[in-house]
From TrEMBL:
GO cellular component: extracellular region
Signal peptide residue numbers: 1-30
Catalytic EC class: hydrolase
Descriptive protein name: Purple acid phosphatase
UniProt keyword Secreted present: yes
Organism phylogeny: Eukaryota, Viridiplantae, Streptophyta, Embryophyta, Tracheophyta
PANTHER family, alphabetized: TARTRATE-RESISTANT ACID PHOSPHATASE TYPE 5 (PTHR10161)
EC number in record: 3.1.3.2
Subunit structure: Homodimer.
Amino acid sequence: MNSRRSLTSATVANLCLLLYICTTLVVTNGELQRFIEPAKSDGSVSFITIGDWGRRGDFNQSKVAYQMGRVGEKIGLDFVVSTGDNFYDNGLFSEYDPNFKESFSDIYTAPSLQKQWYSVLGNHDYRGDSEAQLSSVLREIDSRWICLRSFVVDAELVEIFFVDTTPFVKEYYTEEDGHTYDWRAVPSRNSYVKSLLRDLQASLKRSKATWKIVVGHHAMRSIGHHGDTKELIEELLPIMKEYGVDLYMNGHDHCLEHISDEDSPIQFLTSGAGSKAWRGDVDPTTNNPKSVRFYYDGQGFMSARFTHTDAEIVFYNVFGEVLHKWVTSKQLLLSSV
């Protein structure tokens, strides 16, 4: 009798998962896969962005997760965005790797965080079984988890375009950094990047959203340890400018940053401080142009709230204290710190 009840529960859970995916995922030929996230009844959308986090609670990951839960409740969280390097040190070794539960399900337990997590892969994720994080098996373990290489979250007034940036970086193919990468889905760097950018352009061209955001793991502009990613500046940034992207969000550098583009309205926002930070690794006073609005080398995360006219970005430290806030208006086309 107990086994029958257990089987029935598992069947119901699987059917619910399948129903969610079918009702939220839209696939259009020549474009990126699309997930639907309806805006709230007041027309607003709120989410938290976190990156470089999966360390089984160590390096203050659990403390950051606790503060995320508090902020999530305060802002009426709709979903979470993960900027990659989801599991350290080398991703997952399979879809049954206990690191998934120990670094994700067991850590982000606050009621407000029981929403969908939309994730991209980082370079550390590519060092393991990169296919594992994309597997539906993980969604059966924890239904919050959604990870694809590149895709779109359509939240009505906001569209978020997730881009798989690791294959852009040419250094990784030479293994000069001493690591090997799982390139099974990337037989050719140039053809993969070309196809991805073509699909991204089609999706951006179709977008009618008030706010357009691109999310990738690697920083486009950064004064942190890794600095700028030249391949993204050369190949991705021109497309973002052409189609009026407002924000680029990333991880990779284990810090929090806000940098303004020097010749467009695009803002570069780094949230890669979900666990281990590199405090003192870089002296920001030696490389701090006027375009750098904020830099913090400790642990923390970022929240974002959008309405049809306004956007608010807030950075928090491991104690939940506000470090930096930026507000902009589409009506006035003005911004303030």
